[in-house]
Amino acid sequence: MKKIITTSKAPAPIGPYNQAVLSGNTLYTSGQIALHPQTGELVLGDISAETKQVMENMKAVLEAAEMTFENVIKTSIFISDMHNFSKINEVYATYFDEATAPARETVEVANLPKFVNVEISMIAVK
Fold this sequence. Notes:
Strand content: 25-35%
Oligomer: single chain
Protein name: RidA family protein
Helix content: 10-25%
Pfam families: Ribonuc_L-PSP
InterPro entries: RidA, RutC-like_sf, YjgF/YER057c/UK114
Number of domains: 1
Family: Belongs to the RutC family.
Organism: Tenacibaculum geojense
């Protein structure tokens, strides 16, 4: 049985999908971009600020499912320019304990929704 997870503390979906789906004890999140949940405006211009907004959006989705970053077992990071990897990684690292950090992949892509620079999705387990 699946349970749809939603929160007003993260951007509302802009298509036929949900912020996250809980199946059993496993949470599958949709990708988050740097949309500010209250204003609907994109946080762009500085890759560190953009990444922080993405991670804060993800934090809100995890909290809506009664989870934290400690529950995350896998992340997928999509970036538009691999030259931004070190700055993205710097912000990302502040949300995880390196010793228990999740598995991860980082992929450079041609374009992302709304032409943002970074999108992150996660899988977490209670």
